Amino acid sequence: MKCPRCESEIPEGYMYCFKCGYAIQIVPDYDVDVEKSMDESRDRIAGSMGNMFNEGHAEETIEIPVVNKEVQAVRKTRIVLIILAAFVFLALLFGFNAYNKSNSYDGLVERAANAYDEEEYEEAVILLEKAMAKEEKIDNDSLLLYAQSLLGNENYSKAVEYYLKLLGNDDPSADIYSGLIEAYREMGEYKKINALLLGCPDETLFNMFKGYMTLPPQFSVKSGTYSEDLTVEVTSYNEGAIYYTFDGKDPSSTSGRYTKPFEFKGEGKHFIKAIFINKFGMQSEISTATYMISYDIPDDPEVSPESGGYLYPSYISVDVPEGMKAYYTTDGTEPDENSSEYTQKLPMRIGDTTYSFILVSDKGVSSNVVTRKYSLGIFNPTCTKEDAVNYVTASLVATGALQDIYGTVPGIQGNYRYICETAAKEGNRVYYLIDEYFQEPGKKMTSTGTVYAVDVSSCMLYRTKRGPDGEFYFSLFY
């Protein structure tokens, strides 16, 4: 239908023009003949009524002429149009009220909630923003719905903004923490999840969400310089896996997985990097440790007696701390771990000798070399050390221990050799010490551990035995 005044289109069901306000006429146009017939009928009815009262025939029946068919039709049309107009008015009224209700604050929130349930998150956001524009103060339930809709619409940063407002305005709830954690997770802000949960005042909520935390792994030993080998354990705060590297590269889920403590041995720098990945696949920051292992150098060995000239032999002793070993040479060269090991007191060598000593720690680190120079001359001997060797071989041949003075033994390939290089003192007696060796054909001599002794004054032969302190004890040879 077009407006008679401005010819604008009028929507179906409406009785006025939205553009110019013109009201549509619902009563038929004026018809002169119909109106004239209706007037004549009214006059006849009025005349009949007047005659009845004047002649005193009030109780007689008045015959009302039948209204013209055209009048009846007009009346019916008017009634229908009035009823129709009433229905249109009521429809408009109810429609307007429904529209107002649907676009009120509560109506918009309700529509947004329905949209959220239908996963129409963008529509929910639009409706809630319209609702929020109508109110100065928004209730927390609507704010939560808005934050959840933003999260569903993948507007994570804005969702975080409103979740944080809720966190500050209300008692903490699982919905708020769940939404914040999800938003931070999507943004890769794992540190903020850690901070959020570490600051959570509610133990129940903390326990509910602590599995999302990605605190960096912890090392049992701090970075630094150490003089010992290290055993380092790596721990995580909660359930998940630890991955590591030793080559300086950043670890990932394809790196080595930590299963047992690390052993760092040997001098030098040792590096370790580790990450923690929780059961949700979220990765922590990298933890790094650097260990410098530099073993302590042992103190210089304490050797006695001091260097000097001696007329009587003295035992040479070295103080060996626990966990260390002592090595020595007697030819003036520097000793190492391949040299003779000092295990007990040493008898002094006859003549001029330079002793060199070192201590070696259990880590293989050597001390400085300590030297001692001794000059031992036997005071007033009756026999020489060569005589002492001959006494030993002759006595062994006499007892049948040897076949001849060359150290031959029947049925054995090789010969026994006897060498006198040292001397020892017991009480007032001084003894030459003669060490026994065995030499197989084409091989070096090896010590048998047997030591004989000859008194430098009486030239008598003695057997020897060493006590726990390393000193010799003597008994006559029979």
* Form type: rod-shaped
Q: Report the span from N to C terminus.
A: 152 Å
Instruction: Let me know the largest β-sheet.
Output: 6 strands, antiparallel
Q: Which strand order spans the largest sheet, edge to edge or round the barrel?
A: 15-18-19-20-21-22
Q: In the residues, how many domains can be counted?
A: 5
Strand content: 25-35%
Rg calc: 60 Å
Poorly predicted segments: 56-67, 92-99
Structural class: alpha+beta
Q: Let me know the number of strands.
A: 22
Fraction of helical residues: 25-40%
Instruction: Give the helix tally.
Output: 10
Determine the mean pLDDT. 86
Blueprint of the fold:
Elements (H helix, E strand, L loop, with lengths): L31 H23 L14 H34 L2 H13 L3 H14 L5 H13 L3 H14 L4 H14 L2 H9 L4 H7 L8 E2 L4 E3 L3 E3 L1 E2 L4 E6 L10 E2 L4 E3 L3 E11 L8 E7 L8 E3 L3 E3 L6 E3 L4 E6 L10 E3 L5 E2 L1 E11 L8 E7 L8 H14 L16 E12 L2 E11 L6 E10 L5 E6 L5 E5 L2
